[in-house]
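Hello again,

I reread your note about wanting to compare the complex against the isolated chains. To keep things tidy I'm splitting this into two emails, and this first one only covers the full assembly. Below are the input lines as submitted, including protein chains and any nucleic acid or small-molecule components. They are followed by the predicted structure of everything together. The single-chain runs will come separately.
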Amino acid sequence: MQVRYLIPLIYILFLMLPIYWLVAMSFKTTNEILSGFSLFPQTFTFENYAAIFSDPTWYWGYINSIIYVTINTVISVCVALPAAYGFSRYHFLGDKHLFFWLLTNRMAPAAVFALPFFQLYSAVGLFDTHLAVALSHCLFNIPLAVWILEGFMRAVPKELDETAYIDGYSFPRFFVQIFLPTIKAGVGVTAFFCFMFSWVELLLAKTLTAVEAKPIAAVMTRTASSAGYELGLLAAAGALTIIPGAIVIYFVRNYIAKGFALGRV
Amino acid sequence: MKTLNQRAWFFVLPVLVLVAFNALIPIMTVVNYSVQETFGDNLFFWQGLDWFQQILRSDRFHAALGRQFLFTGLILAIEIPLGIIIALSMPRQGFWVPVCLVTMALPMLIPWNVVGSMWNIFTLPDIGLLGYFLNHTLGIPYDMTQSPIAAWITIVVMDVWHWTSLVVLLCYAGLMSIPDAYYQAAKIDGASSWAVFRYIQLPKMKTVLTIAILLRFMDSFNIYTEPFTLTGGGPGNSTTLLSIDLVKIALGQFDLGPAAAMSLIYFAITLLVSWVFYTVMTKGDTN
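Full-complex prediction:
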């Protein structure tokens, strides 16, 4: 083993420590947590997890989050596909300005939009629905999706399109049967990033929901403040939020690095 | 070459409609508030540019902006070099590559408030792993709720923990795109490892580094949830960054006018700095 591998090793250890601590906490009883420091759970308990899986407020938090994240990912990828194709293949009036304007929405602080979003989605009657959160997350996910997909599509030579037209393919048939399979890695990477940024966002999700579509993150903050700081329960809830992300990363592990490299600035 | 085709607008239309709905209507609401005064009951009075002047002259805004620039500056100064170093020392092939990538990407997929809570649990003085280690094993007094310096170090370390992987993954992607022939040529020329880095790896990483710096700038400048969950902006106001201050004014005190004016100034600063970064970093490309 070479010495330079120590650097990533130490870095990964540093990344894992807080996660280990969260998981360790989640297996401890509240008494043990408050009575003092212990590196491993002394009385190993599933109490905290049992509490989450038996309380609808808790597990519906997870279901709600997964629902709006999925809706958002589907919408973002579906509308970004034709747009990215347009940007990668054609010049049109205002294309560069439009592209830049899209990206500026990625720079908008969510805090700026919290209150207007609340009013907007209340006005159109979508407040406290999964669709509202999914649509609001489009603000930053669509520009990102267009950006990544455009990079992947630009790498596909234009001759592919032309040959297909000569062979008599109509545009929709060409797009679905030939073009999409060519860039399926790109679609995967894009879906991954949309999932990621929608899953981790809290401020807008919390502002746009009350009861019906309340995300897990909001359930956690309210529990943290109301239930007198049950650290074990909070840790268990936190540990569970890592799982969906971990599953998704596992599926795209071979594409993550590539997806980054092909985006354009 | 791309062909000129105005009908390509139809491809872009769905994106345009969705993003415009989410961006234009809210931003116009903000503009609307920023020039009016309200006492509730939907009564509004024309206020002109008073709120903008008030915000630009207020010490509170200057302090929050100063803290924000300090935070973002520290983040970029630490995460970018660290990310490059880690990416350079990572294995290029074999079993450990996916293991590294997956474990490194993990922190980025944890919801932001969970990141805050996690670090809170991790750093509690008497029962957190880090807090206990510092206070009782090393004997360094450390309590985030008492000392502003401890709070600052904690939020910076938390962000390094959370986002350095983004820089690592980007740089790693850039490095992987370098053909082996380049390294062989360098070896034949007897180039030092510094020369390899300076003249082969760094230029190849330039695009991805531009993306990394831009993304890290935007996201650290707009950061809200993690520091808010961890410190709540305290002790005192010492970690009240711009977003935290903005939410305090808008949703805490419900001062819509000043909050809206501050939002617009905030957004303008983010845009301006991003544009400067972008222009400076891509200047050489056209030559």
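For quick reference: Residues 1-45 of chain A form one domain.

B.
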